[in-house]
Structures are given as C-alpha cells and as structure tokens.
Design goal:
Layout lengths: L5 H14 L4 E2 L1 H8 L3 H13 L3 E6 L2 E6 L13
Antiparallel strand pairs: 1-3, 2-3
Length: 80
C-alpha cells in the first residue's frame, strides 16, 4: 500500500466509526463500506488501535472493531 494513502484512509475510517459510535465492524464490513481492500485497511486499523481511537474485540468468534471514546480528564486547582 502506498504510505501516502494512509492519512486519507485513516480519516475515512475515523469518520465511519464516529458516524455511528455504537456500531461494530468486521474487517470485511469495513472493506465493503469503504470500498477498499482488506490488506489496505489492516495497517490503518492497527494504527488507530495504537492511537486509542478504535478497539478490537471478539464476538461470536469474529474479530470486530469499534470506536473508542477518547478519555478526557479535567483537573482544576482550587485555592483554599
């Protein structure tokens, strides 16, 4: 896969996951929905998992991916 295509494909994946954050997709589903080859999606999914944007899990013996809500923390300093 051309490494220059990764940012574009990464954005397509993020947009798909964010459009329905409760959905879970198999590699085959993603390939079909994005009209991309599975082997092109695999490195992008690995990158998104490392970045904490999506998570991988097993359900009914099938590997699925879903959006992972980013953790946000707020720290406030309060003067006594």
């Amino acid at each position: 896969m051309n490494t220059r295509r990764i940012p574009s494909l990464k954005m397509e994946c993020i947009m798909l996951f964010q459009s329905n954050p409760q959905s879970a997709h198999s590699l085959e589903d993603l390939s079909e929905n994005l009209d991309r080859e599975e082997e092109d999606l695999e490195p992008v999914l690995e990158l998104l998992m490392k970045q904490g944007i999506i998570e991988q899990f097993q359900e009914a013996g099938k590997t699925l991916y879903r959006y992972q809500e980013p953790e946000t923390t707020s720290e406030f300093e309060m003067d006594p």
